[in-house]
Predict the structure.
Amino acid sequence: MTLEADIACLGRLPLFRSLPPPRLKLVALMGEKLRFEAGAQIVEEGEKPAGVYVVLQGEVEIGHKRPNEEGTRLQLNSGSLIGDVPLLSGHSYVGAVTAKSAVSALLLPKDLFFELLETIPDFSLALSRDLASRLYRLADFTLHGERVH
């Protein structure tokens, strides 16, 4: 993808829609563009986050293997964030992140991510809504054992 395509892709994501065009361009420029082939490990379980990945294209899977078991997996699609929760909570990744398909991602350094949170209230609000939505889906799945919403 070109810089313009990256900017357009970011601008379509709910989290970044509120960013003014110059800030959106700055995010695209300051983020590190990464590509992963299907099956490539993006993050190791227990690793401390260096920033936040924005999945621009493709699917990723977060997994945790238990001894003598298949393990639990969570699939995420384009537009998903990876690393925001451990970064904000000060913890490491609870599972390994693997590319399920060819993946194009933008790695936002933690300093840039925190600067966006501190200087753009709409970004902070959008992230809060996104986190709340993910927490709701997790609670719903935990309580009901299936996707209801």
Observations:
- The first strand starts at residue 32 and ends at 36.
- The chain has a mean pLDDT of 87.
